[in-house]
Structure formats: structure tokens, C-alpha cells
Amino acid sequence: MFHLVKRSFSTAAEKFATIGRNDIKSTVKLDYLTFNPDFVEAVKSPIVLYHGKFTTKHLWTPIADTLANATQRQVLSVDLRNHGGSEYTTIDGSHVPLMALDMKQFMDEQNIRKAILFGHSLGGRAMMQMAFYFPEMVEKLIVFDMGFNIPTKPLSFLYLFDQFLLHFIETVDANLTLEEAKMQIRNLLLKQIKDVFFVQVIADTLEKVNGKFQYSFNIEVMYESLWKGRVHHLDVTKPYEGHSLFIYGNTGFVIEEDFISIRTVFPNVKFEHIDTGHYGMVEKPDLFSQRVSEFINN
Questions:
Q1: 160 DSSP 8-state letter
Q2: Could you give all domains of the chain from N- to C-terminal order, each with its CATH number?
Q3: What positions does the domain AB hydrolase-1 occupy (predicted)?
Q4: Calculated CA dihedral for residues 237, 243, 248, 252, nearest 10 degrees
């Protein structure tokens, strides 16, 4: 069983108040992959992808080429701060608004004036914030498996799961090979989590560098940011009036009770349910790509 170590949670409201849409000095450099369509009839704005917590830009590989060709648009898959090849920060740099400002800086550096923004989970929250801060840069917004509010049940799971990941990396036998360690973490997770795609995605983030195991993300900062409330806050300057699509699976991160609050800040929203777990792009890439492409092309 996952065991929760009790913490004193905080919304860190004072710190949030110091972050605004012009706080560019706090941004970091982001790493990314580019996927180009085989054929393009006309120049269109690109699709920019932001993955979720625990993963990297490689999460989108199963659908990135398909999206590029189905929409005839360039696709850029970007690492969040504290993940993959992007810069790591301290706990003070773990706020969602800063992740949105990173995206703004990234688009400026790539000379992207407007894009279709597509975020998954934590990346979805960052893309929501980007739409609130810079709506003029968002052609359409797509969010997968993340609502405006985070329900208690999945949030509680994340607290427990973060602690499991920390404990595993601190206690795993350094003499194991990478494949042996991945098998060990898979076996431990499968005893408690039925979603085999979720388990595989997490196991694939394990790395061994200079004889030491680590994840492809900053687990210490991401855990601390969760229990300090850094990932909860969204700074709603005004509703995003553009077209948005919220796709949700069976995980409980988006519940129908949250539809009203989502429509309040995204009045032109469309909801789509896909019968998948948290990593729908891995579990059902063809169906996932089809739903997203239809929304982009229409």
C-alpha cells in the first residue's frame, strides 16, 4: 500500500501574488522536439504540446507525426521546467504561472505568434494559464485529463504516488541494471495500479546515470510543489473566449460537476470523453489523434 506522510498544506497565496504575465525574468529554457508534416498546402500556425507531471516531451511520440500529417501543421513537443531536458529549478520556481511564462518565452524564441496549445495533466494547467495570460497567442486550446479544479481523490493519489517514487529511488539497489530496476518498479506498481499503460510510462522515466538511479524529472521539487499547493493555482485574469476542447478519460481528474466551473472561464468549450486511463495518447493513439485532429481542422 502507498502510505501518506502527513504534511501541513498551503496555497502559498502570497507567493502567487508576486507572479504576473510580465514576470519574464523568472523563465527558463525549454527543450523540445519538432515533427514536420510530409505535405503542407498552406502555412498554418503550429501545434505546441506540453506533457504532464512524471513524463517528458517523448510522451507525445505515439501521436505527434499523425497529428502533424492529419492537420498539415508543424508539431513541437516541449519539456516542462523540471522535466526532461528543460532547466531544473528550486521549489520557488515550481508555480504553474511560471510554466505558462516559460511557454510564452519559448514561442517568442521560435517566432511563433499564435499556436494551437495542447496540454496534458499538469501541462494542461500550464496551457490554461497561457490562454488566460496571452489569449492573442492561442488559436485553439486543447486540454487532456485535467479540469479547472483538481478533485480530491486524484489529488490524494498524487501525494501518495510522489512519496512512493521518492522512497523507491532512495532504496533501489544500485547494483541492479536499468532493466532490472524498471522491472522492479513495474512489479511494485502493478500490485496496486491496474492501468498497465500508466505503470509502463512511469517505469520508462527511470534512468541510470553514473551508477545512480534517477527519474527523467525533478521528483524532489515536484513532490514539494504538490504538498505546498504550487500546482493548484491558476491566475484567471479574464475568461478565455477562444475555442477550447477538454478531453477526459476515466481517471477522475475531470468530473462532470466541474463542467460548470470550466465553462465559466472557457465559455466556448467542448467536452469529449475517451475510454482510456491517464495516458490516452499511449493507450489509444489512433482514436486520440482522430478526436484532436477533427477539433483542430473544423
A1: H
A2: 12-153+231-297 (3.40.50.1820), 155-224 (no CATH)
A3: 46-173
A4: 30
